[in-house]
Design brief:
Chain lengths: 243, 100
């Protein structure tokens, strides 16, 4: 007698959680749509086919690193360097993963795998916010937030690649400068981080120097290493007395 | 036969998934991370992305430099999408009125 009633309540609760998550995802969908479309269009311009563009959005689901992959592929850089650069840009997810992992301990193994697969920046931010507010981070809520955003991202790659085929003069509409503008916007979004300016100056100077001397693709590695070293050198221990 | 692009995508997908699952599996086992390592990790995205902007800004003509300078300045006031649209408008107009 009790069984079906409680099952129904659980199901209703799951649906409510899913919808609550989906509502949180709505503004995200609007905000990232231009970039999903742009990715598809630029992918075609850099020699990708439509299925390849869609596959990349579906398999990586990591906007900035997808753009980095396109940019480097367009520059005819060795494949392993491209993969390494994708890894480097996505390395921040290690920190998200460690943080979100604590909030989803109650998920099953496969639920965790699915949850980590869709762990993009806003997913991390919303999950932390909900966890900190003391609200339950259920699998239904998590996927309610993640799934619509993910599906739209994949769809946008498809629609964008259709537009990409229509672009006849990519230079005139500045397609080659659009990605650096996008990357610069991302760089600026990190500006509240500690020692951001010295890191950016070191990376920028080292990358221009390497670009003019040893040449592409080494400007990416050398520039990044310079910035990371500066951050490590300037870092101060949080609690000097802790031992 | 799979294309080079497909291989890059699949390898890229694997390393991306490793970063998303790895923090939970590896980093959470350590009680604390050395502060220099943590600062270095925090700096990775800004450091990598800067290297994709600086050469475009400083090794091309003045149109590219102006566009990126302008975009960087408006990024301090506006969010990502408007910054991006104004930056794109800037390069389109500069190239239209001052073709190389």
């Amino acid at each position: 007698m009790d069984q079906p009633v409680s099952a129904e309540i659980v199901e209703r609760g799951m649906r409510a959680d899913f919808l609550e998550g989906a509502r949180k995802g709505l503004p995200l969908i609007v905000a990232i749509a231009p970039f999903g479309l742009l990715f598809g269009a630029v992918a075609i311009d850099n020699g990708f086919t439509m299925p390849e563009a869609v596959l990349m959005s579906a398999a990586l689901y990591a906007g900035a690193s997808q753009m980095v992959g396109l940019e480097l592929f367009g520059q005819k850089i060795a494949p392993w360097m491209i993969v390494l650069s994708i890894f480097a840009v996505n390395f921040r997810h290690v920190l998200y993963s460690a943080a979100v992992g604590r909030r989803i301990r109650h998920f099953t193994f496969w639920q965790k795998m699915a949850a980590f697969f869709v762990l993009v920046d806003p997913q991390y931010a919303e999950t932390e916010k909900r966890g900190e507010a003391g609200l339950p981070v259920t699998f239904a809520w998590y996927m309610g937030l993640a799934l619509p955003v993910y599906l739209m991202w994949v769809l946008e790659a498809f629609v964008g690649s259709m537009f990409g085929n229509l672009i006849t003069n990519p230079h005139a509409i500045g397609l080659d400068v659009i990605l650096p503008v996008y990357f610069l916007g991302l760089v600026m979004s990190f500006r509240s981080r500690q020692h951001w300016l010295p890191v950016v100056i070191a990376s920028g100077a080292a990358s221009v120097l390497a670009y003019k001397t040893v040449g592409s693709p080494w400007h990416v590695s050398f520039g990044a290493i310079a910035g990371i070293l500066v951050a490590a050198i300037l870092a101060k221990p949080e609690k000097p007395e802790a031992k | 036969m799979m294309s080079t692009i497909t291989w890059i995508i699949l390898a890229g997908a694997i390393v991306t998934f490793l970063t998303r699952v790895g923090g939970h599996l590896i980093l959470s086992r350590f009680e604390r991370i050395h502060y220099r390592v943590e600062a270095g990790l925090n700096a990775v995205p800004a450091a990598v992305l800067t290297t994709l902007v600086a050469p475009t800004a400083f090794t091309n003509s003045w149109q590219e430099f102006t566009t990126l300078l302008f975009s960087g300045l408006i990024a301090t006031r506006l969010s990502m999408v408007p910054t991006f649209c104004l930056g794109a408008a800037c390069i389109i107009l500069l190239r239209y009125f001052f073709p190389i």
